[in-house]
Each structure stands twice: as C-alpha cells, then as structure tokens.
Write a structure and sequence with these properties.
Shape: rod-shaped
Low-confidence stretches: 1-27, 356-370
CATH class of the largest domain: Mainly Beta
Number of domains: 4
Radius of gyration: 43 Å
Structural class: alpha+beta
Largest sheet: 6 strands, antiparallel, barrel
Strand content: 35-45%
Length: about 375
C-alpha cells in the first residue's frame, strides 16, 4: 500500500513538472511591442547656436543743430511708417530766417530787372554810336552781377527752407523704435543720436557654425531655430561669412527669420541648418538604448528571443532617429520595453508596428512581467 501511494505521487510530479516549467517560462517573458526600420527621407543638418540680431538698426538724428526740441511723438516699441514725423524742433527762428531770405531774393530780382532794362536800352542804340563800348560793357557787367545776386539769394532761400524742413525729424523706413535718448526741451545737436529704429521689423539669427562644417552651408538653405522660451521658426540662410573667428574657430551664418512678436534682438537660439536630404532607415527613439556611450537595439529572433545589436545613429527628428548602420529594413526590433531587456531574454509580442505606420503600443507596466 505504501509502495502504491509513492507511485501515484511520483506520477503526479512528473505530469506537473512540464506545466510548472511552462508557467515559469511564461512568467519570465516580457510583453513588448515590435517595430521595423522605416525607410523615409531624412534631412541632414548642421547644428549651431547663436543670438538674434536686428537685420539693420538705423540711427536717427537731427540734420540741424542749435534748436530746441519742441515735441517727441514716439516712444520705445512704437511701430512707425516711412516719412512719419518722430521729433519736431522749434522752428520760429528758422521761419523768420526764411522770410528774410525771401525779402533778399525779391530785392535781388528787382536789381536784376533794372540791370536787364538798362542793358536792353543800351543795346538798342549801340549801333547809332550814342553809347560807347565801355558803357555797354559796364551795363552788361551789372546785369551779370545782378543775375549772380539772384542765384545767390535763391540758394540762401532754399538752404533756409531746407533747415526749416529739417525741424521735422521723420522715419527713414518702416520699423519699430528700439531706443530713445531725446527729450523735450533739450537743444538738438546736428548728427546727434535721438532714436534707433529696427528697419522693417526684420531680425536675423547669426549662427556660429564650426569651421569644419562651414563649407556645407549654402545660401538659401532652410534653418529651423528654437529660442529659449520654446518659440520655433523656420528661416533661410541669407549670407555666409567669408572668415572664421580665430578665438572660437567658428564662422557666422546669417539666417533671415520671419516676423514674430516672440523673437527679439539679443535672444539666444539654437537650431539646425538643413544641408541635404536622403533616404534613410529610421526607428522610434524608444527602440534605441544607450549604454556605455554606444547605441543598441534588441532584434527579435525566430525563437521569440532578443539579441542585442549595436547600431550607429544619426540625426534625431520628430521622435525618430536615423539608423546609419547595423540594421536591415526586414529586422524586427523591440520598441516599447527595450529598456527592461538584456541579451538573450525571451519576450511576448503584444503589439507590432507595421513599416510606414505609427505605433500605438503602450508602455510596459509591472503586470507585463507576470
């Protein structure tokens, strides 16, 4: 009886052993999602940093000096139009000067009329011998002098009118006022700075590109920049500096930026200049594991196990990383859950991303280990 009982216990243990091993194997596998490299056009870029500058900042000052500032019509931040009056100088003295010059011009005109009349009468009787040659020459000289006095008076009048016109300091172009140093009541100095204007409200990004990459940057290439506050803009390379700064071993690349109220001169920005596009294999960022300074992925084999494989990566964009070498487009790669694996682990595939589609796999949880 004891022998029969022992036989039944041994038989039950033999039946339960394979089931127990299967349960342990299932329990040890990790539920993961699988993807394959996707072939797509991938941009190659040059990464750079730099600051935002004004495209052109015009310094505005008065062309006449010695007159009191009567009014300042703008302040910092105001948008202005070409020809708009920004500052007005007191012009009473110049108005009086213009009136005086007009009177001098009228007097010169009268003298010219008299000299012209005398010369005509002399010439009309010159042939009869009633007027000597010397007298004729004197009258002609007076006529020419009168003409010169008229031209001088006209020039003085125009100069005074220009001075009066310059009492209105106007905007040379459309733009935004960026600085103001003038105040009402001060005496303006000819050529002294009163205001600064950001011409056409245009700004540019001056990217500092390593000297080894300068030859790859060309005029017209697109540049995507991001400012410190997260504002993203797409600009275009306008110019490439012909020299390299010896201190930093970088060259300046001038990138025109679209108008934006969130981007101001002086802001720091980082960005990428797109130098070319080519077909490349890409993977989701979640598939790539970085260990000891190298990039790895876990490739699924036919036995539902994973093999760790080292790859070489390139540019990262829109949540995907370029795979330069180490994978074939037909390889199946672990996406979600790769961070929990090691070489040789068994897995359980719960979701698979088809090439060219977007994976909706969830992130492995603690329940996936059970």
């Amino acid at each position: 009886m004891h022998t029969l009982h022992s036989f039944f216990i041994a038989a039950l243990a033999a039946i339960a052993a394979p089931l127990s091993l299967a349960q342990e194997s299932a329990k040890g596998s990790l539920a993961v999602s699988v993807t394959s490299p996707r072939a797509e056009q991938f941009a190659r870029t040059v990464v750079a940093t730099g600051s935002v500058y004004a495209w052109q900042e015009a310094v505005i000052g008065s062309e006449v000096g010695g007159y009191r500032v009567a009014a300042v019509n703008v302040d910092v931040g105001d948008k202005v139009r070409k020809g708009q009056e920004l500052v007005r100088l007191a012009g009473e003295m110049l108005t009086a000067e213009v009136a005086s010059k007009k009177a001098a011009k009228a007097q010169a005109d009268a003298q010219l009329i008299t000299a012209s009349s005398n010369l005509r009468r002399a010439e009309s009787i010159l042939a009869s011998g009633a007027v000597s040659d010397s007298e004729h020459e004197r009258l002609r000289a007076e006529f020419l002098a009168a003409q010169a006095r008229v031209e001088a008076a006209q020039s003085d009048l125009e100069a005074s009118q220009l001075k009066l016109q310059y009492t209105r300091v106007v905007a040379p172009d459309d733009g935004v006022i960026t600085a103001r140093t003038v105040v009402v009541g001060q005496i303006a100095q000819a050529g002294g700075e009163m205001l600064r204007i950001l011409r056409q409200n245009r700004v540019e990004w001056r990217a500092e590109v390593p000297e080894g990459r300068m030859r790859e940057v060309k005029i017209g290439q697109a540049a995507r920049i991001t400012t410190a506050d997260g504002t993203q803009l797409v600009g275009k390379v306008r110019s490439v500096a012909p020299t390299v700064q010896s201190g930093t071993r970088t060259g300046l690349v001038y990138v025109d930026l679209p108008k934006s109220d969130n981007v101001r001169p002086g802001m720091f920005a980082r960005g990428e200049i797109e130098i070319s596009q080519s077909a490349s294999a890409t993977l989701p960022l979640a598939s790539v594991i970085v260990r000891d300074g190298y990039s790895y992925v876990f490739v699924v084999n036919e036995k539902q196990g994973v093999e760790r494989r080292r790859i070489e990566t390139g540019t990262v964009r829109n949540g995907r990383v370029e795979v330069v070498s180490g994978l074939q487009l037909t390889d199946r790669v672990v996406e979600r859950g790769a961070g929990f694996l090691k070489d040789g682990d068994r897995i359980r595939v719960v979701e698979t991303e088809e090439p060219g589609s977007t994976s909706a796999a969830r992130t492995p949880s603690a329940e996936d280990h059970t």
